């Protein structure tokens, strides 16, 4: 049952094949079994069981709230949840219990979803590995998959070779990949949903900026943050997006105009589409496996009658450094509120208010956060503002214009890699510092955030190491529905294999439910 | 906010005072100077500056002072600038605080439409250019009563710019003489208010009230002096002046201090000062961190504020979502200068009387209500409102709204006076009775205290005859054509009538009886 997609399990609930409480208990039991993945910071067992009970009552009375009623979900621990600790994986917010729900959380709850818990991340979502949070790194479930274990090199057969989940929403990705829930919320500022989705073999969706409310999402970069969605298939993402999208009076940056979102048709024709391949995304650091898959994917579209053309996004190479300036500046500003006075950590040092501020922030934030605050404040200084912040804003405009030009020229969707490589072992990952890693890992994803476009990472195939590889599709602003439609077609063609975690599953139900074990269309 | 902003004219008045006070040293002709203005959201800020050119006495240095005011005025709105929490004066501390006001992580600002409208109207009233697009910025500094670590304001592109306000002031001692001045308004900006720190020295702790918007008007004055024709001097900023009297005193003191400093070979430091109202002087503020860098940054959570006018308004615009400047202009109330002009035109009032009527909150409305209900001449109404009514208010330090005498009651009294039912002197007595607020009407008081004018001619003739008989010497003087004598007789008759007789009638009877 747990291996099913959200849509399938929703049908099973409606038909009474399983009750919300049974489903909830199964997920809770799996969360316990997979505790070593460190996917969850807080497991909200009692809340989830109570919600399941209420959902069960609704089903019995024939008053189900819809597709999400009784469905276990998880939420990244940087979304405010009323009555449930929200830490951002930081000492600064340990013990902080928000008095309100983020709009997206509220929308899920209003639909009857069961909140299983709050998932792990890099501290304040600053990172690309989910390794830099105060609660420790997230382990990629694929580290323990049959597919990977069979293929990895023999000298790596001890437990220390586990892989990173990607980040910063690694906990959400791992929670869905390990079947502990059917959908999870991440956040995506520079790729934080798409990157772990690619590494964990999931669909990871970043909506258009302004389509989904940020109210209650503890910000990293307000002008780029969006709530992201993790599911095991594109249809599920469409269901969740349909619930989350829409204007929120509490977030002035959400668009007023209603965006039409409907169920994606089951038969999709891509023959009329124009697919753009940005030449700047072909970088030397790109692994040959991913490069080859990218090329095969382009051929796949072409073979179905789509027009595939090479396009140029000329300012791509400036994007990362521009992102760095804008990101750290907003971070410096957003982190200013954490002063130990009202909520979260407060240092015991009290010789003066200033000393208390300094000690609180020293103790509360990790090095990554403090470094970004320092950089950001430097860029915002009166003497530097024009040379850094204003210039970066101008470059951002040029990057946006690159995309607009390409779409104006008739391209419907861009096809790119999501990551440079498959997931790497933790021990390898931490050889580089957070800043270097983020700059490398965000290379294909952050420009999309600068431009506010919708993008989705679709799992495509397994690498030689038996690890998932995702490709990214980027759409026009607010053409999220069209993007997901193309993604669904693509997903159907590639037939990405289901993760084999039978060691985890007592009943082995997983592989039986949805057991296509090998990729079909795209092979190495 | 409108009320607060209208008070902007008053700093000009103090200039007239400063200029005459400065007769010994810094006499000045007042000139309009560069002016800036910020309107503050939760509270709003206005800044204006005045420049005075000093006219020296022979052999003296010429000094000119330049003054710029940053005026923070609270917008009169039901809820805060960026949150739905209510605004209420003197509410218990932290009782009106939304999650946003407390800067809980993840909360976002939502702009209050009413505050934008108030800012636009203020801009229009101050003849500003209203920016069709304005932006919000974050201004960063750490302070306990600033929970987000930054304040949302409009630093780069404010809602209104480049305005001016023309105002008139009395010239001292000659209250009847009024002169007209202009100040320039640099900008009006919407700005979030910080919280309020309450220092408990006893327990050596600081408590924070995030209700905000406590002070309705707060002024920072920037002051420098220089020799005309030379570059501007180094300025000081006197912070947190919350009364017009102290504002005037602080500026006077600071100009004098700077001149003295410079004339003694010293220098003026660019510093912030505060005004010690007990000692009447400005003192440097302890500025621990030295020069602040506020690290301004665009507020990413608020899209640009776009305003429309009749020509730019999209045809399919949702009226709830757009603000139309032209529509707001139509709803502007009559501005004070126009009201004064109208009063002079409509009632033949002296200009200084029109000022007096507008200088007191509610007085004009009171006046107009009396006019509406009485047959008495406007001139008479003006005199009664400004002399008698206002005098009583001032004596007891009451606002117009607190007056025990309603406009209707005064109108009734003036009707009695107009119909000669009471004499003018008796009317004053009636007014005094009305002021006691015992719920009696003017007519009741007149009848109970027999203050009505004597209508019985025969009785009055008897009273006149008795007075003539009792004062042969005065009668003699009258007959000798002493012009004062007849008035004395009239006075005596009035006294005998207990002020109830009409002097014109008395005069007529007396003249007849004495065959004048």
Automatic annotation (TrEMBL), chain A:
Quaternary state and partners of this protein? Subunit of the heterotrimeric GatCAB amidotransferase (AdT) complex, composed of A (QRSL1), B (GATB) and C (GATC) subunits.
What is the organism field in this record? Myodes glareolus (Bank vole)
Q: Which SUPFAM superfamilies match?
A: Amidase signature (AS) enzymes (SSF75304)
Task: State the GO CC annotations.
Answer: glutamyl-tRNA(Gln) amidotransferase complex; mitochondrion
Please list the residue ranges annotated as the Amidase domain. 26-484
MF GO annotations:
ATP binding; glutaminyl-tRNA synthase (glutamine-hydrolyzing) activity
Give the primary localization class.
mitochondrion
| Documented EC number(s) | 6.3.5.7
Cellular location(s): Mitochondrion
Protein name per UniProt: Glutamyl-tRNA(Gln) amidotransferase subunit A, mitochondrial
Family designation: Belongs to the amidase family. GatA subfamily.
Task of the protein = Allows the formation of correctly charged Gln-tRNA(Gln) through the transamidation of misacylated Glu-tRNA(Gln) in the mitochondria. The reaction takes place in the presence of glutamine and ATP through an activated gamma-phospho-Glu-tRNA(Gln).
**Top-down, what is the taxonomic lineage of the species of origin?**
Eukaryota, Metazoa, Chordata, Craniata, Vertebrata
Pfam families given in the database record: Amidase
> Known InterPro entries for this protein?
Amidase (IPR000120), Amidase_dom (IPR023631), AS_sf (IPR036928), GatA (IPR004412)
Entry annotation: catalytic residues: 76, 168, 192
Keyword annotations for this protein, in alphabetical order, are:
ATP-binding, Ligase, Mitochondrion, Nucleotide-binding, Protein biosynthesis
**Record has Protein transport as a keyword:** no
Give the reaction(s) catalysed: L-glutamyl-tRNA(Gln) + L-glutamine + ATP + H2O = L-glutaminyl-tRNA(Gln) + L-glutamate + ADP + phosphate + H(+)
Keyword Mitochondrion assigned: yes
GO BP terms in the entry? glutaminyl-tRNAGln biosynthesis via transamidation; mitochondrial translation
């Amino acid at each position: 049952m747990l291996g099913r997609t959200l849509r399938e399990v929703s049908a099973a609930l409606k038909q009474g094949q399983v009750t919300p409480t049974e489903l909830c208990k199964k997920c809770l039991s799996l969360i316990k079994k997979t505790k070593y993945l460190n996917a969850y910071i807080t497991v909200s067992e009692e809340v989830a069981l109570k919600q399941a009970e209420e959902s069960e009552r609704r089903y019995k009375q024939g008053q189900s709230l819809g597709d999400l009623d009784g469905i276990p979900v998880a939420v990244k621990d940087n979304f405010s949840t009323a009555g449930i600790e929200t830490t951002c994986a930081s000492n600064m917010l340990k013990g902080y219990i928000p008095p309100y729900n983020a709009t997206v959380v509220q929308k899920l709850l209003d639909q009857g979803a069961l909140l299983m818990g709050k998932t792990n991340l890099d501290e304040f979502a600053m990172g690309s590995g989910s390794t830099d949070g105060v609660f420790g790194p997230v382990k990629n479930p694929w580290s323990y998959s049959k597919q990977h274990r069979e293929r990895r090199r023999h000298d790596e057969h001890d437990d220390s070779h586990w892989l990173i989940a990607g980040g910063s929403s690694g906990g959400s990705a791992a929670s869905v990949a390990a079947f502990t829930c059917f959908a999870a919320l991440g956040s995506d500022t520079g790729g934080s949903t798409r990157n772990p989705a690619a590494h964990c073999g999931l669909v990871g969706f970043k909506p258009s900026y302004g389509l989904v409310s940020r109210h209650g999402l503890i910000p990293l970069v307000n002008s780029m943050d969006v709530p992201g969605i993790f599911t095991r298939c594109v249809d599920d993402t469409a269901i969740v997006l349909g619930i989350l999208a829409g204007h929120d009076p509490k977030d002035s940056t959400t668009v007023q105009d209603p965006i039409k979102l409907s169920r994606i048709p089951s038969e999709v024709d891509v023959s009329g589409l124009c697919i753009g391949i940005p030449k700047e995304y072909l970088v030397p650091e790109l692994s040959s496996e991913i490069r080859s898959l990218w090329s095969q994917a382009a051929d796949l579209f072409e073979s179905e009658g789509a027009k595939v053309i090479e396009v140029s996004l000329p300012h791509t190479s400036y994007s990362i450094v521009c992102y760095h300036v804008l990101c750290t500046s907003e971070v410096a500003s957003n982190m200013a509120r954490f002063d130990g006075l009202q909520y979260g950590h407060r240092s015991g040092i009290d010789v003066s208010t200033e000393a208390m501020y300094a000690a609180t922030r020293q103790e509360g934030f990790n090095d990554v956060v403090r470094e970004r605050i320092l950089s950001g404040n430097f860029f915002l200084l009166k003497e530097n503002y024009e040379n850094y912040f204003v210039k970066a804003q101008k470059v951002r405009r040029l990057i946006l214009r690159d995309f607009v030009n390409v779409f104006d020229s008739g391209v419907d969707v861009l096809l790119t890699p999501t990551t440079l490589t498959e997931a790497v072992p933790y021990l390898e990952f931490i050889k580089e510092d957070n800043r270097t890693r983020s700059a490398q890992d965000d290379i294909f994803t952050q420009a999309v955030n600068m431009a506010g476009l919708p993008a989705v990472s679709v799992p495509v195939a397994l690498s030689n190491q038996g690890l998932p590889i995702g490709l990214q599709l980027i759409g026009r602003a607010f053409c999220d529905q069209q993007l997901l439609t193309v993604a669904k077609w693509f997903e159907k063609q590639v037939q990405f294999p289901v993760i084999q975690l039978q060691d985890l599953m007592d009943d082995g139900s997983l592989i039986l439910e949805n057991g296509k074990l090998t990729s079909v269309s795209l092979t190495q | 906010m409108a009320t607060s902003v209208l008070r902007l004219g008053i700093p000009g008045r103090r200039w007239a005072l400063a200029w005459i006070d400065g007769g010994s040293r810094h006499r000045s002709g007042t000139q309009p100077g560069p002016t800036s203005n910020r309107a503050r959201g939760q509270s709003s800020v206005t800044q204006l500056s005045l420049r005075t050119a000093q006219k020296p006495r022979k052999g003296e240095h010429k000094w000119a002072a330049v003054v710029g005011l940053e005026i923070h005025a609270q917008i009169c709105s039901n809820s805060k600038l960026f949150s739905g929490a209510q605004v209420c004066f003197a509410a218990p501390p932290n009782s009106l605080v939304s999650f946003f006001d407390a800067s809980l992580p993840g909360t976002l600002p939502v702009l209050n439409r009413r505050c934008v409208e108030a800012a636009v109207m203020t801009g229009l009233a101050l003849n500003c250019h209203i920016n069709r697009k304005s932006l919000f910025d974050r201004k960063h500094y750490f302070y306990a009563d600033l929970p987000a670590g930054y304040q949302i304001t409009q630093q780069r592109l404010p809602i209104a710019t480049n305005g001016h306000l023309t105002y008139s002031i009395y010239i001292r001692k000659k209250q009847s003489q009024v002169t007209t001045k202009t100040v320039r308004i640099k900008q009006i900006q919407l700005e979030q208010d910080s919280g309020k720190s309450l220092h408990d020295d006893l327990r050596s702790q600081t408590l924070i009230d995030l209700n905000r918007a406590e002070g309705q008007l707060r002024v920072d004055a920037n002051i420098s002096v220089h020799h005309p024709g030379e570059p501007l001097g180094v300025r000081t900023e006197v912070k947190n002046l919350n009364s017009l009297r102290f504002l005037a005193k602080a500026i006077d003191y600071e100009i004098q201090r700077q001149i003295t400093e410079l004339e003694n070979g010293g220098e003026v430091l660019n510093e912030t000062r505060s005004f010690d109202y007990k000692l009447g002087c400005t003192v440097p503020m302890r500025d621990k961190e030295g020069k602040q860098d506020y690290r301004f940054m665009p507020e990413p959570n608020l899209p640009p504020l776009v305003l429309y006018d009749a020509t730019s308004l999209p045809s399919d615009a949702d009226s709830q979502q757009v603000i139309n400047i032209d529509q707001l202009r139509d709803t502007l109330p009559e501005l004070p200068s126009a009201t004064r002009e109208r009063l002079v035109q409509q009632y033949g009032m002296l200009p200084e009387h029109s000022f007096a009527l507008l200088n007191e909150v509610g007085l004009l409305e009171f006046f107009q209500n009396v006019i509406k209900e009485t047959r008495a001449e406007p001139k008479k109404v003006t005199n009664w409102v400004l002399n008698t009514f206002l005098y009583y208010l001032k004596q007891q330090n009451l606002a117009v709204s607190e007056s025990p005498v309603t406009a209707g009651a005064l109108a009734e009294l003036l009707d009695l006076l107009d119909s000669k039912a009471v004499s003018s002197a008796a009317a004053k007595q009636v007014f005094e009775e009305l002021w006691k607020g015992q719920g009696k009407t003017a007519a009741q008081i007149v009848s109970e205290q027999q203050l009505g004018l004597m209508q019985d001619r025969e009785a009055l003739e008897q009273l006149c005859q008795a007075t003539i008989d009792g004062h042969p010497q005065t009668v003699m003087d009258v007959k000798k054509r002493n012009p004062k004598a007849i008035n004395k007789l009239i006075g005596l008759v009035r006294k005998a009538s207990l002020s109830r007789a009409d002097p014109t009638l008395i005069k007529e009877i007396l003249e007849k009886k004495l065959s004048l």
